[in-house]
Amino acid sequence: MELHWNIRLAEKDGPTVLRGKTELSGRGELHLRPSLPEGHLEEVSALLHLPLRPGEKVFMNGYQTWTNCPELGPKDRLRGLNGLPKAVVEHFSLNSYGDYDFVPYPDRPGQSHGFSYCSFRLGERTRLFASLDEKPGYTVFSYDAGQALLRIERDCRGLRCGGEYRALDLFYAEGTEDEVFDAWFQALGLPAPKARPLKGYSSWYNRYEAIDDGCIRSDLSGCKTLLEPGDLFQIDDGWESAVGDWEPDGKKFPQGLKGLAEEIHAAGFLAGLWLAPFAAKKDSELVRQHPDWLLRDEIGGLWTGGVNWGGFYALDIDRPAVQEYLKQVFDKVLLDWGFDLVKLDFLYAAAPFAGEKETRGGRMCRAMELLRRLCGEKLILGCGVPLMPAFGLVDYCRIGCDVSLDWDDKPYMRLAHRERVSTKQAIENSFFRRPLNGRAFLNDPDVFFLREENLKLSQSEKLLLAKANALLGGLLLTSDDPNLYGDKQRETYREIVRLFGAEEVRAGAEKGCIRYRLDGKEQLLKLPKGKLKIGK
């Protein structure tokens, strides 16, 4: 396969264009390191003629953890925000959650794109194209099935350069899924994650922000009859006085959180706590007192990261005062209060745009390295983060969107961004991002439910979600109130936990099934045709 590459930059004396070609064959790496004159990059790209074979499917890894990314056929399309009224997009900041402001969405059949890696699967054979370094800029893969072209582009427009530049760092392999992903991570030099598979409880999907000292203690009491020693008990959003102001809400938690962490430990569990370290609610004390800490765009305007909590801004990680503030927050949560794990959410907010000194990808990698330093040896569950910058830096990572309390959310919500809440899309992402589990980190497929109350999922949908999470993930959490479980739900919970210990798990996209070994026997979970975009 012949790869044609192109580099264009703007100089004071006029534009410079460099072109070349190289051969891609077998399994190996490509490192393009041209020496460039002083100037600003306008484009770094490469083209590869790559016809789809009959029946071959395309997978493009989405921008961040919540981004929906199923396998696609030659007539499928990725729908962005095309067709949504501009006023709606701006009011809800829908463009902030994904890549809509810097990657085009042609909205034509056969057009797709993704970040950091993509694969082409025919039966059990996979062709993998992947990045080996995102610090010089995200590697954006775009495929046009009609023209049979794979475009590979470094997200580096506007970057000031001069001297050697790491234009492309690519890996290519063909083989079975395990063969190509094992080879990629070997080339990356990333060891297997040290963290162990973990199960437990999260407060979010039953109580959401309506938590307080009483209900958390009640759920903890119920978990004592359900969880096992060493499991996780995680307090989610709602404990803080405001996002960005990381002190306990005095009305909800008048005695603080240190005592709760001690009670969680006394029950034999790991204590987990949710934070969004790079986010600050618009009416938070942090925003009022430190407007200079906030990330601003190239014309000095504040960037809104999303509509959550009435809208939030992002912190500028380049400010020493911000770094010191975050150090104080993590020291308090992890060392003073004694939490063992932090679920760090909305991390994409650290790097929404680039500058002439650094790309989006470089900034995101640096933000994740900062978090790893601040957390030391404590466990990190990453969420709302571009995936490759999190490789090897978080212990667990969400690989799909939030599950919903019904199957696929409300019909009008299906017109929103690719990062929307959806149980259906969460299961699909768990299936298609399964090769990352145990290689980049342990996958977090989000929670499952067995309860009857406060839920619109059918019994079969609940069991499908629970079984898929148990077989495809490295983190298995429920978000039910265990005090309300009857004997049948407790028995089902034990069955799901047994499934979490299954061995030799193999997922077959061609037939939409998951094969595994349990109790010495080969077993099979069939995924329902028509209900999921898997195995068509």
Brief characterization of the structure:
By secondary structure, the protein is α+β, with helices and mostly antiparallel strands. 22% of the residues lie in helices and 29% in strands.
Topology readout:
Elements: E1 2-11, E2 14-23, E3 28-32, E4 35-49, E5 57-60, E6 71-72, H1 86-91, E7 111-115, E8 117-122, E9 125-131, E10 139-144, E11 149-154, E12 160-164, E13 168-175, H2 177-188, E14 198-202, H3 204-207, H4 213-223, E15 232-235, E16 240-242, E17 245-248, H5 258-266, E18 270-275, E19 279-281, H6 285-289, E20 304-306, E21 312-314, H7 320-336, E22 341-344, H8 360-375, E23 379-382, E24 396-398, H9 423-432, E25 442-444, H10 459-472, E26 475-478, H11 487-500, E27 503-508, E28 513-518, E29 521-526
Parallel strand pairs: 14-15, 14-26, 15-18, 18-22, 22-23, 23-24, 24-25
Antiparallel strand pairs: 1-2, 1-4, 3-13, 4-11, 4-12, 5-6, 5-8, 7-10, 8-9, 9-13, 10-11, 16-17, 19-21, 20-21, 27-28, 28-29
Helix pairs in contact: 9-10, 10-11
